[in-house]
Amino acid sequence: MPGALENRARLACLYAGAVWGLFWIPLRKLEGAGLHDLWITTIYFLVPALCALPVLCLRWRAVRQGGLSLQLTALTGGAALTFYSTSIIYTEVVRALMLYSLMPIWSTLLARMFLHERITLIHVFAMMLAALGILTLFGLGMGPPVPRNAGDWMGLASGIFWAITMVRVRMHGNHSAMELTTGFFLWGLALSLGVALALAPGWEPSFAQAGPVLPLLVAFVLFLLIPGTYASFWGPKFLNPGIVGLLLMTEIVVGTITAALFAGEPFGVRELVGVTLITGACLLEPLASVLRRNPAPA
Q1: Which DSSP symbol is given to 296?
Q2: Could you give the CA distance from residue 235 to residue 268 in angstroms, rounded to a whole number?
Q3: What is the pTM of this model?
Q4: In angstroms, rounded to a whole number, what is the distance separating the alpha carbons of residues 153 and 225?
Q5: Distance of alpha carbon 77 from alpha carbon 158, whole angstroms
Q6: Alpha-carbon distance 153 to 87, whole Å?
Q7: Residue 276 Cα distances to 129, 191, 288, angstroms
Q8: Do the Cβ atoms of 17 and 247 come closer than 8 Å?
Q9: pLDDT tens for residues 61-80?
Q10: Of 16, 163, 172, 259, which residue is least crowded by CB atoms under 10 Å?
Q11: Which residues make Cβ contacts (< 8 Å) with residue 158, sequence separation at least 6?
């Protein structure tokens, strides 16, 4: 039974990463509608936050019981996405993604420090595969992933904050993924709204701008974003946070492929090699776990 539960948790993380890899589609639509970049994240969070309010009212006892610990975990998750979304505004998208993608390293180190999780050879090899895939996909000619400006630092912070979130989810496994998902959307809305009001006052979007995109955004939120976010908080409760960081890299694979299919982004040999390496890094530990439990007959 524990093995079956871990397998479901791995699938949940792979699915969650894939959903986040589609995050760009409504984002690009909102951008095309003429919204200021800093207000796009606020509109994005507003829809799921409105959906979360009835859940908050119905489960307020569980939220209260979770206390400060629950809110802190949801807050770090909301901060991670706010940092990432803002970093894209103030630096190159490629650099923001590269610096965020260091997240498996931070989650592995934090899991070792606070959870005393082992770092296995398979884990190290998977991280090396992932790093090689990221460098192949994004880093050729870009130099080492060292922050150079405020946007870069926010991209780096987004990965660190998400790693902290995954470690906290593992440490406090009694917190319900439902309450964490609700808190994530509400804190994300509050943080992104604060950033937009502070850095882009007077650029508030009108309904005429956002209205045409709302049907797509609502459908995406209801059928993909909310289930994917729930999976982001449920799966890590049962897994090493370092492994979670690798599994969530399906975001890069799905994002790269869908951007090529639907947005005309380039997809040649370099992209194919990078995606293949990252996919291998995502699947290496799950496949090794299956082989350990089902050894080949002698």
Answers
A1: P
A2: 33
A3: 0.92
A4: 26
A5: 9
A6: 8
A7: 10, 35, 17
A8: yes
A9: 989 999 999 999 999 999 99
A10: 172
A11: 80, 81, 83, 84, 87, 96, 99, 100
